[in-house]
Amino acid sequence: MIKDLVHRLAIEHTVKPQAFADSQGSALEGASIDIVGFRRIAFAVSLGDISAAGITVTFEGQKEDDNWEAISNDDLISDDNLTDLAEIAEDDDDTIHTFGLAVAEYKAVRAKVDSGTNDGAGDLAVLVMKQKKYDEPV
């Protein structure tokens, strides 16, 4: 029996597609994405045209105390390293980087994007992909 991925997957923007520049002055906190009741979580960072290094992307999780905390690289599964995105180079134009969340201790997640003060500029979006829980047949 084929498992239908379309009906088991929910995708939401934590950061909608937009342009960033160092002139913004402060970091953008993405929308909070509720992940309660989902089995697996992954982030997708979609980069458009990047004109200079200096944009940083971080992921944050929220536990029961409602405080946001940084999700460490140790809690992410990927061929990429989130810290590699900390200095996005011009050769990363038009790429997508994915990161799976290895721990399920959060009730919500979000991304934070900071264009910094190093002439960072470019277009990007961050999505959260959530796989719904389901009962496997016995």
Short recap of the structure:
This protein is mainly beta. It has strands spanning 9-21, 28-29, 33-34, 38-52, 56-62, 68-70, 76-77, 95-101, 108-114, 121-132.
Describe this protein's structure:
The protein has one domain (6-132): Jelly Rolls. The chain is 0% helix and 51% strand. The chain is built from no helices and ten strands. Strand 5 and strand 6 (68-70) form a beta hairpin. The model has no long low-confidence stretch (mean pLDDT 82).
> Number of DSSP helices?
0
Task: State Rg.
Answer: 16 Å
CATH topology: Jelly Rolls
Helical fraction: under 10%
Highest CATH level, the class: Mainly Beta
Give the helices and strands as they follow along the chain. Answer: EEEEEEEEEE
Largest sheet: 5 strands, antiparallel
CATH architecture grouping: Sandwich
Number of folding domains?
A: 1
Please list the strands of the largest sheet in the order they lie side by side: 1-10-4-8-7
Mean pLDDT: 82
Strand content: over 45%
* Poorly predicted runs: none
Number of E-state strands: 10
Question: In terms of topology, how is this protein built?
Answer:
Blueprint lengths: L8 E13 L6 E2 L3 E2 L3 E15 L3 E7 L5 E3 L5 E2 L17 E7 L6 E7 L6 E12 L6
Keywords:
mainly beta; five-stranded antiparallel sheet; 138 residues
